[in-house]
Amino acid sequence: MEIEESLKKYGKGIDEHLKKLFPVRDDYLSEPIWYHMDTGGKRMRPALCLIVCEALGGNPDEAVPFAAAVEILHNMFLMHDDIEDGDTMRRDKPAVWVKYGTANAINAGDYLLGRAYRSILDGNLPQGKRLRLLDIFTLTYEKTVEGQALDINWRGSTKFTIEDYLRTVELKTAYYLTCGMVGGAVIAGASDGAIDKIWELGKSMGPAFQIRDDLIDLTVGKGRGGVIGSDIKEGKPSFLYAYTLSKAGAADKERLVEIMLKPRESTSASVVDEVIKLYKKYDAINYSQRFAEGLVEKAFKAIEEIPVENKATFREIAQFMAQRTA
Amino acid sequence: MEIEESLKKYGKGIDEHLKKLFPVRDDYLSEPIWYHMDTGGKRMRPALCLIVCEALGGNPDEAVPFAAAVEILHNMFLMHDDIEDGDTMRRDKPAVWVKYGTANAINAGDYLLGRAYRSILDGNLPQGKRLRLLDIFTLTYEKTVEGQALDINWRGSTKFTIEDYLRTVELKTAYYLTCGMVGGAVIAGASDGAIDKIWELGKSMGPAFQIRDDLIDLTVGKGRGGVIGSDIKEGKPSFLYAYTLSKAGAADKERLVEIMLKPRESTSASVVDEVIKLYKKYDAINYSQRFAEGLVEKAFKAIEEIPVENKATFREIAQFMAQRTA
User: Fold this and answer.
1) Fewer CB within 10 Å, N side or C side of chain A?
2) Which residues of A lie inside 8 Å of B (Cβ-Cβ)?
3) pLDDT tens, B209-229?
4) Cα–Cα distance between A197 and A174 in angstroms, integer?
5) Where do the domains of chain A lie, and which CATH numbers do they carry?
6) Which of B21, B138, B236, B264 would best serve as a mutation to test chain A binding (most A beta carbons within 10 A)?
């Protein structure tokens, strides 16, 4: 698929820029940062920024500083979220806070954010565009933090609904999945109408992406050393959990919440299995798949409404995303 | 003293702006933020921004959004640093991470930073000035994080020198003590020459401020519930520690490092007293006082070189700062 080639090609340019922003050194900021950044990130979000910029007639080189900022943002959040969520593994290696301590992990994440702003500020673009990009970046940053605030405080709630899930995920996932594409469009000089539709596309695609991620946690795991059911162990409020809560009888519901509230270390594999059986009993897995498919369809609909000639690239992007995970 | 009146007057305007930026609510972001912001911060840094703006002929109203951003930055750092340093008390109340948990404290700090950028971005100033302020803010943010990285990793080091201390403190304290004044000057349209000298003033005043703070920890404590010697308990590398390390004989040096490396809970009051006696033995307290006075003199020298007519306000500010603590 052509888009995969583009992703690879553009991913490399991003890494070069990142190395200029924070050179590889053995100090207390560079070391945890590169330990984390090197661990196999796909650089998908920044590559999408460059691809969209080019597709809309812009010069992708001009988009590199913003694209790098988006990649930095992604990694900064992973670093802080792993502490907040108590996730000890990331991409099959110990998380930064486990390896370098919580203090260095908070601080390295903070530093990354500064570098992201620096990248956008120093980009070679007219003042108005730089301010617009800073605006988009700040909006995205804040919405994602708001989403994380909701997410960490839903743990073990019996009142968690599908609406709550979608609201949380739109904030936590959709903005920063989309902001690279939006930034690329701004740099290319796209109209406000086009930019609105790109946001719309992302707001369907983000939750679809996340629901797929929730499902994958039940099959191959999420890069936590092959462990299945991390979300269940950690009591993370997934789509499957929200749906099952809405459908289950009183006894099943009570048991489900009880398991979700268990500390991670006392949630055994057999208990995880019990939850998966509950999910299956209420057809949550099939329903989640169908729901995600519905969202992907919505995203494709938004693409058809983007007022630009070249819709093919967006279709390819959506196609690609619909098959991948976070 | 006139400056204290101005500080009070301007402090109020800042609080109104802060309440617009993040209304007082009972959600998972507002609650920890206002718990923290309400706890008696003096709003000194933002007030200095407005005072300098006015002193240089600018309209202080135009400086409110930047001044608020500086205050937010200050509080964001306190929130994250308390986690990183393991400080359980802040302004004589439990720190945010103790009251709301580490996850919410990291996240609330992250959110604050977003609000600071939003405040500057939405300020009613020409594009060029807004970008310049964002640049100053980002520089300050990054330098402060770099300083914190040094600070948390110096703990218990036997090789910690006065130069290390000054480098760390310039990064960690001086930039964000000064950036409000610099921003106020930019908004007033001050020359680059004036702005350089204001930075210089802050780079002497910041370390002077911090050394005084280190000294105060040995007498009245630093708002940690009346506890004396927090820095010693936590093994924080103070000016006194650096100086004593450089002067002490082998046995005293060994004992000093041994105590600094002790976990906080096993550093008793009598052990703290032992360190204070060591500091006195090597005349570290007097030396620190003299060193801080030397820095204040340097700051006054920088003021005389600021190429503006109204130097009186800067002298008052410096006078005020020389008597206060962080």
Assistant:
1) N
2) 27-29, 80, 83-85, 102-104, 106-108, 110-111, 113-115, 117-118, 121, 127-128, 130-131, 134-135, 138, 141-142, 145-146, 148-150, 152-153
3) 899 999 999 987 766 666 788
4) 13
5) 2-323 (1.10.600.10)
6) B138
For A165-180, give one letter per residue: b (16+ CB within 10 A) or e: bbebbbbbbbbbbbbb
Say whether B138 and A103 touch across the interface (CB within 8 A): no
Query: Which pLDDT score, from 0 to 100, does residue B205 have?
Result: 94
pLDDT for A155 beyond 90: no
Portion of chain A with pLDDT greater than 90, in percent: 74
DSSP A180-221: HHHHHHHHTT--HHHHHHHHHHHHHHHHHHHHHHHHHTTTT-
The whole-number pLDDT of residue A124 equals 95
- Nearest residue of B to residue A82, measured between CA atoms: B103
Nearest CB to A110; choose among B114, B134, B145:
B145
The DSSP secondary structure of A108-169, one letter per residue, reads: HHHHHHHHHHHHHHTSSS-HHHHHHHHHHHHHHHHHHHHHHHHHHHHTT-TT--HHHHHHHH
**What is the interface pTM, i.e. ipTM, of the complex?**
0.95
* Contact call for B107 and A148, based on CB within 8 A: yes
The one-letter amino acid code at A147 reads G
Classify A94 as helix, strand or coil: strand
Here the tokens at position A21 are 């922003």
Q: Which of the residues B79, B106, B179 would you substitute to probe the A interface, choosing the one with the greatest number of A C-beta atoms within 10 Å?
A: B106
pLDDT at A104: 97
Q: What is the mean pLDDT of residues A66-80?
A: 97
C-alpha to C-alpha distance for B38 and B30, rounded to whole angstroms = 11
